[in-house]
Amino acid sequence: MVDHLVYATPDLNRGIDDLEKLLGVRATPGGQHLGIGTRNALIALGPTTYFEIIGPDPEQPEPEKPRWFGLDNLRVPQLTAWFANANDLGKLVTHAAEQGVKLGTVLAGSRRRPDGTLLSWLATDPRVVIADGIVPGFINWGPTVHPARNAAQGATLLDFRAEHPDPASVQKILARLGIDLPVSTGMRATLIASISAPKGLVELR
Length: 205
What we know:
The chain has a single domain, classed as 2,3-Dihydroxybiphenyl 1,2-Dioxygenase, domain 1, CATH 3.10.180. The chain is globular. It is an alpha+beta fold. It has helices spanning 12-23, 89-98, 167-176, and strands at 2-8, 28-33, 38-46, 49-56, 78-85, 106-112, 118-124, 137-140, 156-164, 183-185, 190-197, 200-204. It starts with a strand and ends with a strand. Strand 11 (190-197) and strand 12 (200-204) form a beta hairpin. Helices cover 16% and strands 40% of the residues.
């Protein structure tokens, strides 16, 4: 179900350092999202699941549109979004719209790894936020080798859940999309990942 978790940070290098201290795994540099104003680093959480640390890219000019995942206003690192894998995004978006869920436009994306390898994908618009980020975006990697294959190894996703002030309404949306994600009552919308790593069991929000 989970393709990747998005951990947004106002300073990517500091985010990488802090997570290495916490998990005992040093994230692999991912690359730049050109024109978006961001760059990332990755930690594998399984064969086809990974943890994306994303932050503003100081080497790029200020983007014309706001950066993804609320990065422009972010003060502290947090788990802000997640993506599920889907085979036919066009069909999924149409079906979701018929169910009253507007996932947004399917966009083509790409980034080049530091070793020169180009990764490309199709995904629903990351700027579309549903249920305060508890509802996932959807992604299809096509012929691209899944990023988890080349990401830093050593961590495993054991559990993934969410909290929301109105869990019943969020569960209804997730059910329409065929997503099975436990959502309990919480003061605010929160994604919670339990990760097994060299330094033990870690819970990230």
